[in-house]
Specification:
Helix content: 55-70%
Structural class: mainly alpha
Strand content: under 5%
CATH architecture of the largest domain: Alpha Horseshoe
Shape: globular
Largest sheet: none
Number of helices: 15
Length: 236
């Protein structure tokens, strides 16, 4: 296991890009730890080592993922986000407890949160809808990234028009959240639901706009026609 980790880290070091190193931090408000490797390059490195990793036991794979998270490097977290969607056929509802622990202990910026939750947690929800109740409970957490995770874990299903009622229930809890990362997260969820459910999302926004921060509102209506955007943005 240590050999694989060492090789991954050597490859990341060898593929640092001066321009990426220069600009990486500006995408984040909080200080982040990074090598400065372009995301497509991280994907290629992840694919290279997944060929070795996929033959290991689930526990060994999860141990590797946790070690990657433990380093705090954003690109190492991206490796996990690239790996686990390839492993969804082996995931089980009980794995959600592990994923929650990773979010609580290691996720500390929006890129790590979205990279992991959009697909790995989202795939688990689509495979086992019964875990959605637990994911929805994250919206009440004191951890900002768990709250964002509650919303962004439904992004991919939302693009397909799935789980609209559950999405609204998550947004109800997060509606007046003061954290802009959470506001953007649930606003994004509403935007994706609006692809298939424009009428319902518009009605939800209009009904709740007095309590909804403008950041979330703008995200939610981004895909809507101009006349609906104007109506939604009107102050009563």
């Amino acid at each position: 296991m240590n050999t694989i980790l060492e090789q991954i880290r050597q490859d990341l070091q060898a593929n640092t890009d001066p321009q990426t190193q220069k600009t990486f931090q500006r995408f984040f408000k909080e200080q982040v730890k990074y090598y400065g490797v372009k995301t497509p390059t991280v994907g290629k490195i992840a694919k290279k080592y997944w060929k070795q990793v996929q033959t290991l036991s689930k526990q060994a794979i999860f141990n590797l993922c946790e070690e990657l998270y433990r380093s705090d490097y954003t690109e190492e977290a991206f490796i996990v986000a690239f790996w686990l969607p390839n492993y969804v056929c082996n995931l089980e509802p009980a794995d959600l407890a592990t994923f929650k622990a990773w979010i609580e202990n290691y996720i500390d910026n929006w890129a790590k949160c979205d990279g992991f939750c959009n697909h790995t947690v989202g795939d688990l929800i689509q495979k086992y809808p019964q875990v959605l109740g637990e994911v929805k409970s994250w919206a009440k957490s004191g951890n900002r990234w768990l709250r964002r995770a509650a919303a962004v874990s439904l992004i991919v299903p939302a693009k397909k028009g799935c789980f609209l009622r559950d999405a609204f229930e998550i947004c109800d809890v997060l509606l007046a959240d003061e954290d802009d990362m959470v506001q953007k997260g649930y606003g994004w969820l509403l935007k994706e639901e609006s692809r298939r459910h424009q009428k319902e999302v518009f009605e939800y926004v209009v009904k709740n706009k007095a309590d909804m921060p403008r950041t979330a509102l703008r995200y939610a209506i981004e895909l809507m026609p101009k006349e609906l955007k104007v109506e939604a943005m009107k102050k009563d």
